[in-house]
Amino acid sequence: MSKNTLHVKSCEKIQGELRIPGDKSISHRAVILSSLSCGKSTISNFLMSADCLNTLNAFRQMGISIQQVGNAEFVVNGKGLNGLSKPSAPLDMGNSGTGMRLVAGVLASQNFDSIVVGDESLSTRPMKRITVPLSVMGAHIETRNGNYPPLDIKGRQLAPITYELPIASAQVKSAILLAALNTSGTTTVIEPVQSRDHTERMLAFFGADIQRRDTSISVMGKKELTARDVVVPGDISSAAFFLVAAAAKPGASLLLKDVGLNPTRHGILELLKRMGSNIEVREYLLNENELSEPRGDILITGGQLHGITIQGADIPIVIDELPILAVAGALADGVTVIKDAKELRVKESDRIAAMALNLRAIGCEIEEFDDGMKIYGKIPFHGAKIDSFGDHRIAMAMSIAGLFLHDGTLIINNTKNIDTSFPDYETYLTTICS
Ligand code: S3P
Predict the structure, then answer these.
(1) Which of 107, 115, 350, 386 is 20 to 30 Å apart from 339, CA to CA?
(2) pLDDT per residue over 389-431, tens digit each?
């Protein structure tokens, strides 16, 4: 369990080897698809975080038997596309936008009604982005003030649609594709820019009838899925905190083992290279029977980073890494600009406002825009007392800034939400810092 306050001091050296916990996005999807498939699947290296465990419990509440057989290993006895049963209580997705939006896609096309709730932060996050396309399919979902959780879902038979996403969002894309699984006919989703494609890869792995052409994805519904064994790679979004810490510390050397390298997720590696960082990647060979999610080892050595501009098509593939990239920008020489990232305002917190406030609190000079920020680099960091706004990625990003303090201690309050994505984070941090 993470503490609710983190105290971080500057560290001299960063070195070592880490095996990062399983990928959050892939863990959610593994539970969902194995529950909807026919037969026994295993999931290994599942992310044992609050968010993913909430998704797992939601399927248990709907009658799926899921047994823990190892540290982060589960056996799921899937019952097919129509094998879920009506939950007797609301499904609580905690802090997770991904959990709520993906599960809503599944529930909209079931033959029972359900209620999906979330914590205080999730209850303020927009749901219209999924209820609009799902309603076009014929779904009936009521929300608070027409946009916010809880979701009151009246399950029913849906109709296929072709839908152009107004924003690049893997969660919205996935909600529609999951609803399409139990809907007769072909549903097509067209993305403005490609977002993470874990759902598409895993649907193909479980035997769904799925076609992909450029940024268009079609699913032909009502085909039963086949149980599979999923090995979840390490989460590159969690690795990102240590990558930045090592990249910015001269003399550092860090090896991260078995990290997911999906091209729709590995933007952090490209951007750190653009900032001047030295990164070597050794990708593993995957066999045909494995989930097609590239994975491998990353060796990173430290040096001086340089400011860059992050914008346009960069954004969807580093959407969760922007808080830590803002810290990288503050440690780089020159100026770093983040643009076209308005989506950050509706994440677990308003991540633009939270990072601008926190970086200023430790001495940085930041200009805030509606869709990003400008960071003047290399201004010395000073100790301060800050708040994570209950957002795990703000807490972890700022803890990395703390390793570079010029003086004092960084006290970060409200850090227990780190458990939603990275249980044991503090242990990992102390392992590589001396
Ligand atoms: C996720 C998609 C992204 C990301 C989130 C996880 C997913 O959100 O920010 O942490 O697993 O599909 P959007 O779909 O809103 O971009």
Answers:
(1) 386
(2) 999 999 999 999 999 999 999 999 999 999 999 999 999 999 9
